[in-house]
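The following record pairs a protein chain with its ligand, iron/sulfur cluster.
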Amino acid sequence: MNPFLELRDSLRALGFDEVRYVSIPADSQRAEAETAALREWLDAGHHADMHWMERGFDKRASPGLVLPGAESMIVLGINYLPAQSATDAGEARPVWARYAQYSDYHDTIKTALEKAGLLIEEKLGLGPGDYRYYVDTGPVLERAWAVRGGLGFIGKNAMLISRDYGSWLFLSAILVRARLPTDDSLPSRNYCGKCTRCLDACPTGAIVRPGVIDSRLCISYQTIENKGAIPRELRKKIGTRIYGCDICAEVCPWNRFAQASRSILLDARPEIRRLALADLLALTPESFAAHFRKTPIKRVKLAGLLRNACVVAGNLGAHANDCLPQLVRLASHDSPLVRAHAVWAVFQIAGAARASTLLAAARDAETDASVLEEYRAGDDFSEKQ
Ligand code: B12
Ligand code: SF4
Ligand code: SF4
């Protein structure tokens, strides 16, 4: 059997749902267009404080700089749509992005990529230095390469959308020092048609134009990557999203018929979505480590998750009345970030008069300028009510 076909079959058997071969450089005009799109995105500041996106620019634009002599890329997709996929939106409890309800895909997929590397050595007769793999962590524009390999198209929500799996795909890539027979990209046309559902549904207006996300406005960035305060003007719009956001994918008609995951490589963590808001507000360093060990959620650290939980509580308003004692306690937390968001939440739930009484002791003891500013904003907010 042809070694390239054998390799593809073996990678599929390993658990990768999509295996596409792309040549480097495939089509210089397109590479220029993608690089120009990335430059424009960075120049507009759409990467917020993800400065690592700027640092790898040259390599992102030219995979040959990442692995000299690389002639092909294997773009891999793993479907992560759970078999029973519930849409949590609108429920009075924290909503987690679907990808966060698995053990960290960076770790599970890295293990699979190690095995994929051994298959490449065996089937193509290459050495360990002849390939390099990445899942998110490297300077590879995974979506752009996936398009070139015909895995799907880029929707107006900027997601790579496949006919079989919709956008519920983790992407990863292996650069290879060998010429593989390449898969064709899809005929270039607009597969979204006149649809604008994702643009209409995004609560923060983060899809600034079709296919372009301003991270500063994106709930995913604010609840995962942002290490500081969530801008006050965005907090209400975050609703009950505690970690990540799937809204622009949930509304996409291409996701309606997506197949459920084979779950060969993924390790589902259904216990995460069962955590009540009160459990999250009560997290300690020990319980945070116990609940979120090996999940992507550990990325936000305890203070980040408490910050997000306070925002969700504030947005639940009267539904989070029972959480007020915990929020008042968090208004005296060690982290000013947590204190600031706890104060905001108490004002949202209790209103100015009650909030002032509940928070009197914490306010008297407060010395941090950013937290004191939250108290002032709370007073102003309540005056306007
Ligand atoms: C930075 C980043 C973010 C940032 C910025 C998002 C963004 N749109 O750029 C933030 C934190 C906001 C984010 C959020 C999310 N992310 Co993210 N993120 C990344 C990361 C690390 C880099 C993306 C990047 O380079 N952005 C810069 C922009 C300019 O690039 P781009 O959007 O990929 O667009 C390029 C191509 O699509 C191409 N292109 C654009 N339009 C067209 C049109 C045509 C015709 C062609 C040929 C090419 C083309 O050119 C662009 C520039 O080169 C990638 C992993 C990776 N290494 O690629 C994951 C990645 C994109 N994220 C992913 C996921 C799952 C998410 C979330 C769904 C997580 C969540 N549930 O909260 C959200 C979705 C938000 C959204 N609608 O995009 C997946 C996407 C899988 C998929 N099916 O598309 C990736 C690929 C991670 C992975 N390994 O699977 N993410
Ligand atoms: S992930 Fe959420 S906030 Fe970000 S663009 Fe999509 S709908 Fe908007
Ligand atoms: S929701 Fe509509 S416009 Fe947005 S990506 Fe899906 S098909 Fe395209």
